[in-house]
């Protein structure tokens, strides 16, 4: 049996790593065909990251700034008890980083940031997460999490 046609419906092409790669449109017997290649790879240019001074958001921002220095990063954070500017100290003064203290429930602010910084990507990390806080004022807790998320998704 010719190894280039073994269990494939189309010829196998040698890959740059020395192994074999499926030819365009080929698929393994018994499995669905591979999806065709996309016409382009999405590359964000300007990212609005909400909740960026919190633990998770700040680590994502630091990773993005290190791995993708060409991205413009805009951080929107209310700076409540769960967040701190100290988490972002490594980014202060960087030309492609902007910090804005504000609330995601301020729809006009979110829209202004998206327009001013030509935001093409939003990463939403802002939320109320301490369950104990939800017992005392559950309406405010829910408003921040649900309405704030709604404003970020409708900003553009």
List the helices and strands and how they pair.
Blueprint: E1 12-14, E2 20-22, E3 46-50, H1 55-67, E4 72-77, E5 97-101, H2 107-116, E6 121-124, H3 131-136, H4 138-153
Parallel strand pairs: 3-4, 3-6, 4-5
Antiparallel strand pairs: 1-2
How is this structure best summarized?
This protein is an alpha/beta fold and 156 residues long. The chain has helices at residues 55-67, 107-116, 131-136, 138-153; strands at residues 12-14, 20-22, 46-50, 72-77, 97-101, 121-124. Helix content is 29%, strand content 17%.
Mind explaining what this structure looks like?
By secondary structure, the chain is α/β, with parallel strands linked by helices. The chain has a four-stranded parallel beta sheet, with helices on both faces. A two-stranded antiparallel ribbon has the order 1-2. It has four helices and six strands; from the N terminus they run E-E-E-H-E-E-H-E-H-H. It has two domains: 1-35, no CATH class; 46-153, NAD(P)-binding Rossmann-like Domain (Rossmann fold, 3-Layer(aba) Sandwich).
Indicate how many domains the architecture comprises. Answer: 2
CATH architecture of the largest domain: 3-Layer(aba) Sandwich
What is Rg?
Answer: 23 Å
Q: What is the percent of helical residues?
A: 25-40%
The residue ranges in which pLDDT falls below 50 over 5 or more consecutive positions are 1-12
Find the count of extended strands (DSSP E, 2+ residues): 6
- Output the helix-strand order: EEEHEEHEHH
CATH superfamily of the largest domain: NAD(P)-binding Rossmann-like Domain
In whole angstroms, the N-to-C terminal distance is: 57 Å
With helices defined by DSSP (H or I, 4 residues minimum), what is the helix count?
4
Strands of the widest sheet, in order across it, are: 5-4-3-6
Compute the average pLDDT. Answer: 78
Classified by CATH, the class of the largest domain is Alpha Beta
How is the main sheet built? 4 strands, parallel
